[in-house]
Amino acid sequence: MNIDKLVRQNILNLKPYSSARDEFKGSEGMFFDANENPYGKLNRYPDPYQNDLKNKLSQLKNIAIENIFIGNGSDEIIDLTFRVFCEPGKDKALTFSPSYGMYEVSANINNVELIKVPLKWDFQLDIEEIDTYLHDENLKVIFLCSPNNPTGNLLNFKDIEYILKKFQGILILDEAYIDFANTESCLSKIDQFPNLLVSQTFSKAWGLAAARVGVAYANKQIVQYLNKVKPPYNVSQINQQAAIKALENIEDFETKKTDILKEKDKLISALQKMDIIQRIYPSDTNFILIQVENANKLYDDLVDKEIIVRNRDKLVRNCIRITVGTAEENQFLIKAMNQL
Ligand SMILES: Cc1ncc(COP(=O)(O)O)c(C=O)c1O
User: Given the CA of residue 204, which atom of ligand 1 is nearest to it?
Assistant: First the structure.
């Protein structure tokens, strides 16, 4: 597969910005090159390629640094993918629905048509339907989200693999919630599939949503194009350090993740006893999708009690998405729901 052929002509021709840190890469010396303020602690521009953070990730995930791209949250990775591969007003992308809303927003911002194929009744991919689009030569990118938001389930790997084998464009596999799922990430598949980009984030299981650090794992060429297009200093020094610190404390990560998963089970048990709930969807994530008789009313009733859940009625009829909180928060929610 020739990745260059999928890239927009203007990006192929682009002469990227060369920052002061691109031109002199060392850390020792007296710096007069970037018009920085000589005083202070945050006065210097950060490493544009986040090498310390990538080193840590490389060790943890057993993957080469050249296969890692760091974004300002995975939302930036979604946007950059459109900018690298999709010619506005001409090329197309495809995703399924319901899924994470930013694929559509980013497609609209970039003036790229987004085909949305509905999921089947079991929230799995409708491969027959997707198949009809795979040979469209303007279809450049497919976004798959597994585990999916807001439905909470993992997609069947054999379906992902089918698309990877057949599709001649880029497949973005959004694994924002993979750490909560009882399964392996697909990032080990990037060697086998040059068109696969696996996107992960520090915003969920790593507990760093405020820091805005997303990670793409992909073949070297894709990473090079993302680097070519990204703003030079896309991830701040503070954010890089926050992610490095988290990676240095894997025990804390594991403990919190285990706690969240235990709390999820307890929350599900409590929800199962509530008459107002018609259905609890299986979850491979840190949230639970429930179906009730009237989601709008439940949402408003909970807001009145200063409890904020996510009303997903417009995506999945009468469904509410509940993120697992601390033991205390969950108890508060359960009590409030039992009083309705
Ligand atoms: C599936 C999915 N992908 C990506 C994101 C955004 O992640 P980030 O905070 O890394 O931009 C979210 C956030 O809710 C999400 O649900």
Answer: 9
Helices of type H across 204-294: 220-229, 237-247, 250-272
Considering only CA atoms, give the Rg of the chain. 22
Q: In which order are the strands placed within the sheet that holds 319-323?
A: 277-280, 287-292, 319-323, 310-311
Q: For ligand 1, is residue 145 a contact (CB within 6 Å)?
A: yes
Check if the beta carbon of residue 301 is closer than 8 Å to that of residue 311: no
Q: Would you mind telling me the total number of residues written for the chain in this entry?
A: 340
- Give the architecture (CATH level 2) of 3-248: 3-Layer(aba) Sandwich (3.40)
Please tell me if the CB atom of residue 152 comes closer than 6 angstroms to any atom of ligand 1: no
Q: Which fold has domain 251-338?
A: Aspartate Aminotransferase, domain 1 (3.90.1150)
What pLDDT shows up at residue 21?
87
Tell me, in angstroms, the distance from the centre of ligand 1 to residue 116's CA: 18
Note the pTM of the prediction, 2 decimals: 0.97
Does the Cβ of 100 fall within 6 Å of ligand 1? yes
In tens, the pLDDT along 61-90 reads 999 999 999 999 999 999 999 999 999 999
